[in-house]
Structure formats: structure tokens, C-alpha cells
Amino acid sequence: MTGDASCAFQRIGILHHPRKPESLDLAGQMEQFLQSAGVSETWRHSAWDSGVIKSRLPDVDLLITLGGDGTMLRAARLGAAFNVPMLGVKMGRLGFLAEIFPQDWPSPLEKLLDGDYWIEERLMVRASVEKAAANGAERTIRCTFDALNDVVLSRGSLARIVRVSANLDGGYLTTYTCDGLIVSTATGSTAYALAAGGPILPPDLRNILVIPVAPHMSMDRAVVLSEGAEVRLRVYSDHSAMLTVDGQFEVEVDDTDEIVVDSSPNQARFVRLRPRSYFYQTLMDKLK
Q: Where is NAD(+) annotated to bind (predicted)?
């Protein structure tokens, strides 16, 4: 999808990394550039200041994020609920999600404002932790998170395996004996899931990937599910277990909790300036 920059992006927020002073300096330079180019409204905030960002998202056309993939993940979870697209500036180590580089940003921004871009939409998953109620009453939802990369159910601080039962669309799938279980999007297939030996999925696929971490005498293959699949997980262990969302939020769970993972109604939207085949070239560059 192409855009008409004359009206598409007139309210732009710039998110900088609070622990990277160079990102704050660059955010100021970009804001001045956008203002001089005629963008009607710009603002800057720390990418970690979620409260302020949420309050401004209803009136934002575009988020520019300065940082690594972690900064992009934070922005994606915030912006997706408001259908706000993101443009990433690589200031981290990996940069799978970023689109432009800090040493060469004016030309890409000019291209953006000229309308020469397309929007890439990516599936997100939603994870809810449900607590069993007493006397067979209806289960209560402890918390709910959206994730762009993955949710991981794993052992806690002790180096001991856990048993994780998995149900798929209401039917029993298997019980894993492992260090943890990853439920990933196609975006997350190049993250923790890749380190666990999972397949690489093109980012526009709307599939869910389930893969165990260090399985022991149990199912050791990745399972690729359709977009509409619902996965229910329960952990069995005599010590604490942890649910981690995009590597940034964690919730302690036990065998009275059930973790429900399915497709989120929200999706992440990324502004792309490179050709649509960019993903494979980026992948080859990273894996050299």
C-alpha cells in the first residue's frame, strides 16, 4: 500500500531510548527536519513512558522509534491498539524490525514524506492468564497481554524442567517436558524461536508457531498453527514457573493457572521504504 504524504503523516511522535543519549539527540534533529518539511505536529518522548504515549496515540498518524528491536516491540504493543504505523531507526544490535539507519536518515524521511512507502501488517498474539475458581465457578482472568514476538512459558529461577500440557482448539495436543515452551508469531520466528531451532517464517504469514525449549524425552518438533488457532497451556511443577511476554513482561504462574494464547484483534503496522523482498536480504545479512 502506498501513501499520500501530503495528508497521511501530519502528526508524528518520535520515541527515543532513555538509556541511549545519542537517540535523544537524533530525535531532536529529526523533529526539526519534519517541522521544516511542513509536518504540522511533532512531539518527542521516551519509549518507556507508556502512560504519556498512550494519551497521545489517538491523535497520532505515525510513530518513529529510535532504538533496537526491544524499542520497536514496546511501540508495537502501544500503537497497534490505535492502528498507528511505525518507522524504526536502528540503534540496537539486531535491527530485524528497523527500516532506516542513524547515519543516513534524511533521505529516507524525504522518501516517506513524498509518499514513496508501503505498509506491512504483522500478526500479534494475545495471551491471557486464567485462574481456576473455587467450587467450579467461572475462571477469572488475572492479566492479558499482546505480543508481537512471542510468549514463553518456562521454568523460574531454578534450573529444573517443567511439564507443560498443551491443548489446541479444545483438544489435547501433548505434554512437553522441557525448560519452556515458546508460542511465537512469524515475526518472533527470527527471535527466541530461532535460537530454539524453529523454522523461519516470512513476517507476513499469519501463523502461530509452538516450539519447546530443550525438550527431554517428549515432543521436540515445532508445530505451525493457523491464525485462528487457540492454544491453552498449563504448567506442572513443584517450583515456580514464569510467563514472559516479548521478553519484557513476566508473570509468575502455577498449576492452577491456564494460559490462553490466540491471535490478537490488533496488528502491528510498519512503514517500509525498501522493496517487499527486503526481509530475505536482511535475513541473509544477519545470518552471515
A: 69-70, 74, 149-150, 160, 179, 214, 248
Residues 65, 154 within the same domain: no
CA dihedral 179, 184, 189, 192 (to 10 degrees): -30
pTM above 0.85, yes or no: yes
d(CA 194, CA 171): 27
More confident: 104 or 95:
104
Confidence band for 193, pLDDT divided at 50, 70 and 90: very high
Domain range for 128 is: 124-265
pLDDT value for 4: 43
Per-residue CA distances from 35 to 31, 39, 47, 262 (Å): 6, 5, 21, 41
Q: How many domains does the chain have?
A: 2
Longest C-alpha distance within the chain, in Å? Answer: 65
Residue 7's pLDDT is what? 52
What CATH number has the domain bearing residue 79? 3.40.50.10330
Which residues does residue 165 pair with via DSSP β-bridges, in sequence order?
A: 175, 234
- pLDDT value for 227: 86
The answer on whether 285 is annotated among ligand-binding residues is no
Secondary element (H or E) of residue 36:
helix 21-36
Tell whether residue 69 is among the known ligand binding residues: yes
**129 and 234 both lie in a single domain:** yes
User: What CATH number is associated with residue 162?
Assistant: 2.60.200.30
Residue found by looking up cell 508445530 in the block: 223
Do 159 and 282 share a domain, yes or no? no
Active-site residue, from 69, 146, 246, 262:
69
- 220 counts as catalytic: no
25 annotated to bind ligand: no
